[in-house]
Write a structure and sequence with these properties.
Order of helices and strands: HH
Strand content: under 5%
Number of helices: 2
Mean pLDDT: 78
Largest sheet: none
């Protein structure tokens, strides 16, 4: 498995944690203020949380599929590792 040379995701876990805290605050506002907290505060907070989670998912996909972080390269039949395979013309 390849090791990451540092986190390539800006804020990975802190972003997910902040999203959780935003939703916790949204729930608390709804609990204490009732239906008045839904529009626009609850809607805006939920939209921010969804954007944060979407961004962290996108950056996680990029780390795995483009950066190949956490991927064990299996050798091919010729004994090359996937990251060391020679390029072939189309």
């Amino acid at each position: 498995m390849r090791k990451s040379a540092g986190s390539t995701t800006p804020g990975g876990t802190p972003a997910a944690t902040s999203s959780w805290l935003i939703e916790l605050y949204s729930w608390y506002a709804r609990y204490t203020q009732g239906a008045a907290a839904v529009v626009p505060k609850g809607l805006i907070l939920s939209l921010i949380a969804v954007c944060i989670l979407g961004f962290t998912g996108w950056k996680g996909w990029e780390m795995v599929y483009r950066g190949r972080v956490g991927i064990a390269d299996a050798p091919d039949p010729y004994g090359h590792r996937a990251s060391e395979s020679p390029r072939r013309a189309a």
